[in-house]
Amino acid sequence: MSKYRNIVWFLKAMQEYTRGGYETASKHFVVKDLSADLGGRSFMITGANSGIGKATAMAIAKKGGTVHMVCRNKERAESAREDIVKESGNNNVHVHILDLSESRKVWEFTEDFKSKHSSLNVLINNAGSMVNIREVNFEGFEKNFAINTLGVYILTKGLIPLLEKSSEPRVITVSSGGMLVQKLRIIDLQTEKRPFDSTMVYAQNKRQQVVMTEEWAQAYPKIHFSVMHPGWADTPAVAKAIPDFYERLRSRLRSPEQGADTVIWLAISPAAARMPSGKFFQDRKMVPVHLPLAWTRYSREKARALMVRLEALAKRAQPSAGRSQLNCPIVDISGGPQDCIKKAA
């Protein structure tokens, strides 16, 4: 079945995820959807110093929005900020330094941000990682999982109280169409028991992002949640993480601006806000989260089990948990979804 998924997915990807796929889809875009004045609205964008994140920050700054760039590297972040301010003429662009792989610091960042800011209208979870060799962070979490799944979980959960009291709040998570080849996994989240394949680990993390978005939409109806696939874009992250893929398909990759288009649409368009919360988007359209006949569907119970597990792991990294909690071993969860709920509780 995994071979079937991979073949079907690749055929779909070559048609839809490339620059040509964007050009075909964009013929049906409504230009006025992006003609918003964003003065007075604030946007947080992770991974905003390059690629899709920078293109998104630039577009929002040009429309008058206040931009909070959350980046790992201070020098690159400041350089990107200078570019954005110079081109947009908007000085309301702020840099925050945070490494999403450091789970405890993500908690600390959310608390600090809430203490200094009275509102946040839109959170864009754009930063992602594909570490090709299995590594763990200070808390013992595998780094891809720590950044792509747990980091997104902690940052979003930590900022939800601020989002809920802000006007027309939205949360957009930049996922990947690669998640279509993965069934949801709620055990061995750290990839300790199976061979480590960074591409599949990344795809699994992106499937987990879809599930998180679906569950948050149910739990927090005041906020509009969405998750999206930007297509295959020509970004520094892609060139570094998967160089062979990048070289083979470079001429067919989308520009960062094309990859960012649906992120921006979801973040600012009134049309996007009218779409159901918790859905998956590609090129400004709501699209399925499963390939036909691919056997990747999951029950609500299994989705809930993932959220319970993530909450337990997030609390383990929380500063208030104390150092003894941070140094305790990660307890794996085995069995079915109901077992997961019981053990994680």
Automatic annotation (TrEMBL):
<dbReference type="InterPro" id="IPR036291">
    <property type="entry name" value="NAD(P)-bd_dom_sf"/>
</dbReference>
<dbReference type="InterPro" id="IPR052992">
    <property type="entry name" value="SDR_member_12"/>
</dbReference>
<protein>
    <recommendedName>
        <fullName>Dehydrogenase/reductase SDR family member 12</fullName>
    </recommendedName>
</protein>
<dbReference type="Pfam" id="PF00106">
    <property type="entry name" value="adh_short"/>
</dbReference>
<dbReference type="InterPro" id="IPR002347">
    <property type="entry name" value="SDR_fam"/>
</dbReference>
